[in-house]
Amino acid sequence: MLLPRISALLLAASTVHALKDAYPFLMLPISQDDLSPPQSRQLATATDVETDAIAYLSSASGRERSFLFTQPGLQAEDFQHMPKLRRRVEGISGGQLQVPEVIGGARTESIVDGVAKWMGAEKVGGMRRFELAALEAQMRTAERVKEVKKADDHLDQLLSGLEAETKESYILIYTGAAPAPATEEMDLPYEMDEPYPTLHTDLKRDTRTYHVRASNSSVENPQSGLPLFEKYQFLSPALFMGLTVSLILFFILYVGVSAIAGLEVSYAAFSKEMGPQGQNKGKQQ
User: Secretion signal: which residues (predicted)?
Assistant: First the structure.
């Protein structure tokens, strides 16, 4: 009897290092009357597991209802904290297909699509898919155990409600999947510290900003539509002050140059000093 060993293979995975991107898969009950029932194994690819599940669901007789549960982040060792699921599984007659490590994780939507392709759309009318709360990888052990127990309670509640609707037998599939990537773990581009962030931002602005400013110039600057001589003050007091100072400086320069140019020595005085008489006078002295 395989049912008393419901989690034997799944719990064995907790003693070894789990493969990256590998998630457990559980399907039950498996009728032993089938000629080639799917076999449990420790490791398999998602394609192989999905193919086995599609083949069995397509050939299963007397089981028109199938419940497929997916829980992102579920690992094989989490089953030891799900007592309600284990008791429920032990009460089901038949075998089971369990794969502790499915590389890539089996996708329930692929299984449903495969059954519909093989048996037609009317076959999948009794198949219902559910997704439980994700188990994040960065959870602490206590938090993860708490979330697993909550998932166990939620799964038991759903199955109890589904069983209350009808007494028909059903097939249960419970599988893990890759959790959605967390936004805080995304690699952000490195930005250097800039001494002039405003200038850098202006340089990176789109050229359309210029057109927007041009169209709103009349609102931002009321003088943009005025004539040139009204918009700008050409004859300002500073201009007159500059001209006045320039004239004074030119006048001072003119007086100085004129004074230097007026220093002349007469020819008579020069010839008297430099002539023969002046030279003899100098020798006598």
Answer: 1-18
